[in-house]
Design a protein that fits this description.
about 20% strand, about 35% helix, AAA+_ATPase, nine-stranded mixed β-sheet, about 1000 residues, Rossmann fold, flat, transmembrane, DNA binding, ATP binding, alpha/beta
């Protein structure tokens, strides 16, 4: 039995403290000792002094004792009166607190109880028909346990009275569970009034979709036949059985199934069916008893809640009106499922030619489902120009959007209407319709960069439409002068509120589209779970077509259709909605369900047109760009850039709704610096440039020797000397063929050079970049990061290409703004002249890379002997002996035991035979300086594994020899005429 159902329960409140009854103070006794002690003292003093005056003070002792006794009793009486008054005040306060708690519980209990009078007096209750899982009906009011807790106190009469007061909640709602049947025994008028009250409560709690009502014939129950619950076929049924004075007794047993409830009226308990869970004996207007509760005997007296027949005379009309507003009216007029194919088959009508006139006249009419008057027709042009769709999860929002797109695609060709789909739930909502030829873009889960791209693309679409109308002389898309020039664009957005929360900047764009969309032929269909407080008035003002499926609260329903009706739609009716056009009343409807077979049928009647419809949304750049893509974007000339230009890739220009071929002209654009992390496409770019003009390009790998030689040769060509690289033959046409020098990973190469070579290479590089001018060959440099002395490169390179970098700080250091940083760039993606670029991918040619130029062999030297300065004399000597060259068959290691003499013996120049290789380390040669000096004029000097310090010690020169890569068996060769170059060593 339910007595209280408020949000505040007695258990959630702190207990009320009762005061303890005060204990009266004990009455003070006569102070015998205090009286006798002065007497004895006075007698002793008289005996000692003989003064009779002392005896006078002895007489005062009893007087003082009696006075003290009287004063103590007076104080005790005063304290007893104070304690009694404080106790009485505390008891009064506790009683008042009990009264306040009881009043609060009484108020909460009745405010949450499903009383018949509230249902009758509040006809537009927004919380009606929430279809609770547990149902309770209120029989009337009576005493019920309050559940209040009291602490403290005692067993006094006052405490017992307060406990008795707090234990009972008077006039509480007496509620019972109607399951198991409710039997009412008593006079017919009173019993029917009470049964009427119970029926009103049940139809007020359960919607027509959740409860069916069956009542007996006759005028007493004619009012219930007008209830919308009387016309439905809900699974749960309430049956009212009224035998009447002459009717047969109700003897049908109460079913155990939870789907049926019964209210039985009888003249006596014997007239009730077996198993009746609740039995009520109505004795009068103000008195009734519950004699059985939940199948158990019970004794509970209460005042029944009675409802007169005149109070419910118009209840059927009121609830029917509310059911219609909530999409529950009309009995079974609206089915729970509507198929798309038969609904649209007869209305798919216009061909491309006939649809031309329809759209030109300004129509996007289609059928979405069934409404109570018939088919549900909507027209974005006539009813819009924009639509707002609200609905909670599971209400059928995505199905509605798919059906709407499919219905438009069935009726109109892509030349008349196109769709841009935006889904912030990952894109799955539009999987069924994304293959339609009308679909010109699918946007899913934008980030900030893609949002900026969306702003640019859609803004460009509006400008394009304005330009077309201006050129045609038409005022808007319906003007005959502009007929056929533009297809209407429907932008369908699922989860609009989620998109705005993530990207607030898009709201201004949609407000602009909403304001200008009618004349430009751009329509919005905005779908959201939470329309209240998210979609602003500036946007709502242009959304004249409103569709609301089931929503969770009144505010969302009010925001969409201006009433609470959408909050009353049952949760088990996906696709049930209310459609409002402008200021007209909302119409209950059921949206059709579109299947994959329906989409296949549309694809059969609407094949992909040629040419494809214009795409207002430019897809992001592909992760791989081929020459065929460049040809498709720029025409057949894209892959033949001419004599001076090089193709870099595709440049994204969403503000112009296009891709553009990015080109690089070294003569006009100057030197190019490419900055990017590992595996971001730097080497691929160099390969693509080299593949386009192999005779005009020289690719230098990330190699210390090759890079040095390239820089030396570039400097020489720039100075007009045309000097060949060290170790290579002179080329007279080098300056003409190699107009573009490509140096890969220049920062990694610099890091592998020694300090002096690094400083010299930087001077060479910066000098070339600074001095090559308009006629000199240009450089393309790639680097992973710009640190140290390389920070000056951006100022010396007129063009800059920034690929993916690990951090935004490195991105900024490369000269790009932080806002353009993208950590998700694919290989080949980057920034070029303020825009996003995807580089051309060089297709493999299948040919092997060109071999490294071979260095001159020592055996080819036309010299009588070789002088070798070795890092390790023994290793070098052994290597030369193992080489077995015909030109130098004899190897002599200075300072070691040889056939020529003892260890440490000096060797004279005249004693060195032709074809001899003299090997020694730098210190040994220093000790044999006269020998070295004598032979230097005729014999080359070879440095094998020697250091730069060894080179300078022996040659006495300060210039830098070319760098040598470790592990390649290379050394320095100094000819007798002083030329220094690399050479191969054994």
């Amino acid at each position: 039995m339910t007595t209280t159902a408020g949000q505040t329960t007695p258990q959630s409140l702190p207990p009320i403290q009762l005061p303890q009854k005060p204990i009266p103070p004990a009455r003070p006794g006569f102070p015998v000792i205090a009286c006798a002690a002065p007497l004895l003292a006075a007698g002793l003093i008289w005996w000692l002094t003989g003064s009779a005056l002392v005896l006078v003070f002895a007489v005062l002792s009893p007087v003082i004792a009696v006075a003290g006794l009287l004063d103590g009793r007076r104080s005790s009486s005063r304290q007893r009166r104070r304690d009694t008054a404080a106790y009485a005040a505390a008891m009064t306060e506790a009683a008042e607190r009990v009264d306040h708690r009881l009043a609060r519980l009484h108020r909460d209990a009745w405010s949450s109880a499903p009383t018949a009078h509230r249902i009758l007096t509040v006809p537009d209750d927004p919380g009606r028909w929430a279809d609770p899982t547990t149902v309770t009906v209120v029989l009337g009011s009576g005493p019920a346990p309050s559940g209040l807790r009291l602490d403290g106190g005692g067993d006094s009469a006052e405490h017992r009275a307060v406990h008795e007061l707090a234990a009972v909640l008077p006039l509480a709602p007496i509620g019972v569970d109607p399951a198991g049947g409710i039997g009412i025994v008593g006079p017919g008028v009173i019993g029917r009034s009470l049964a009427r009250s119970l029926v009103v409560q049940l139809v007020g709690q359960l919607s027509p979709r959740a409860l069916r009502v069956r009542v007996p014939p006759g005028p007493a129950w004619a009012w219930a036949a007008d209830l919308p619950h009387h016309k439905t076929r809900a699974a749960r049924c309430l049956t009212v059985e009224d035998a009447g004075p002459a009717g047969p007794p109700a003897v049908r047993p109460i079913p155990s199934a939870a789907g049926e409830m019964r209210i039985i009226l009888a003249d006596s308990v014997t007239g009730l069916p077996p198993g009746c869970g609740t039995v009520i004996r109505a004795q009068g207007v103000t008195e009734a008893d519950v004699v059985r509760l939940a199948g158990q005997p019970c004794e509970l007296r209460f005042a029944p809640t009675l409802v007169a027949e005149r109070q419910v005379s118009d209840l059927g009309e009121i609830l029917t009106r509310e059911a219609e507003a909530a999409g529950l009216g009309g009995g079974d007029a609206l089915p729970e499922v509507v198929a798309f194919a038969p609904l649209c088959a007869a209305r798919s009508g216009p061909t491309e030619d006939s649809a031309q006139g329809s759209t030109a006249a300004g129509s996007l009419a289609c059928v979405l489902g069934l409404a109570e008057p018939g088919a549900l027709h909507v027209d974005l042009v006539a009813d819009g120009p924009h639509a707002l769709v609200g609905g909670t999860t599971g209400s059928g929002k995505s199905e509605l959007l798919v059906t709407w797109v499919a219905a438009l695609a069935t009726r109109y060709p892509p030349s008349q209407v196109t769709f841009l789909l935006v889904d912030f739930k990952g894109g799955a909502a539009f999987d069924a319709v994304r293959e339609l030829p009308h679909c010109v873009g699918l946007i899913t889960d934008l980030d900030e960069r893609e949002a900026a791209r969306a702003l640019a693309s859609l803004g460009a679409e509006l400008r394009h439409r304005e330009r077309v109308l201006r050129e045609s002389g038409g005022r808007d898309i319906t003007d005959p002068q502009s007929a056929g020039r533009l297809a209407r664009l429907v932008i369908v957005v699922d989860e609009f509120a989620t998109m705005l929360e993530a990207l607030p900047a898009l709201h201004a764009l949609f407000v602009d589209i909403a304001a200008r969309g009618r004349s430009l032929g751009v329509h919005l269909v905005l779908c959201t779970q939470r329309p209240a407080g998210v979609v602003r008035d500036s946007l709502l003002a242009n959304c004249s077509l409103r569709i609301s499926l089931r929503v969770n609260n009144r505010a969302d329903s009010q925001a969409v259709i201006g009433s609470d009706a959408a909050a009353l739609i049952p949760g088990d009716l996906p696709g049930r909605c209310l459609v409002r056009r402008g200021s007209a009343a909302a119409v209950a409807s059921q949206v059709a369900t579109t299947t994959a077979a329906d989409i296949r049928e549309i694809l059969l009647i609407r094949p992909a047109p040629t040419p494809a419809p214009r795409r207002p949304w430019l897809d992001p750049l592909p992760p791989r760009v081929t020459a065929e893509m460049l040809t498709a974007v720029a025409g057949v000339d894209a892959v033949d850039p001419g004599d001076s230009e090089f193709l870099l890739g595709l440049l994204d220009q969403p503000d112009q709704q296009r891709y553009r071929v990015a080109r690089y002209d070294p003569q006009s654009a100057g030197n190019l610096l490419v900055v990017g992390g590992a595996r971001t496409g730097k080497s691929t770019l160099l390969a693509a440039l080299a593949a386009q003009a192999p005779r005009r390009v020289r690719v230098v790998p990330a190699d210390v020797e090759a890079s040095w030689d390239a820089l030396v040769q570039a400097r020489a060509e720039l100075d007009g000397m045309a000097a060949p690289p060290t170790g290579h033959a002179r080329r007279h046409d080098a300056g003409q063929d190699r107009r573009l020098l490509l140096l890969d990973d220049i920062d990694a190469v610099l890091a592998r050079w020694g300090d002096e070579h690094r400083a010299a290479a930087i001077d060479l590089l910066t000098g070339i970049l600074r001095d090559n001018g308009a006629a000199g060959q240009k450089l393309v440099l790639t680097a992973q990061r710009l640190t140290g002395s390389l920070q000056a490169l951006p100022a010396l390179c007129q063009s800059r290409l920034v690929l993916g970098l690990p951090t935004v700080h490195e991105h900024q250091a490369a000269g790009e703004p932080a806002a353009s940083y993208d950590s998700t760039l694919p290989p080949g993606g980057g920034r070029w002249r303020g825009g996003r670029i995807q580089l051309l991918h060089a297709e493999p040619t299948g040919a092997a890379p060109p071999p490294r130029p071979a260095l001159s062999a020592l055996a080819d030297q036309a010299a009588p002997m070789l002088l070798v300065v070795a890092g390790s004399a023994a290793r070098s000597a052994a290597a030369f002996r193992a080489a077995e060259t015909n030109a130098y068959p004899q190897v002599l290691e200075l300072g070691a035991h040889t056939g020529a003499g003892a260890s440490g013996a000096r060797v004279e120049a005249s004693a060195v035979a032709a074809g001899t290789v003299l090997v020694a380390d730098a210190d040994t040669w220093q000790a044999n300086w006269s020998l070295l000096t004598a032979l230097r004029s005729v014999a080359p000097l070879v440095f094998d594994g020697a250091t730069l310090a060894d080179y300078r010690l022996i040659t006495r020169r300060r210039d830098l020899p070319p760098p040598i890569a470790p592990g390649r068996s290379h050394g320095w060769l100094v000819t007798p005429d002083g030329v220094v170059r690399r050479t191969g060593v054994p």
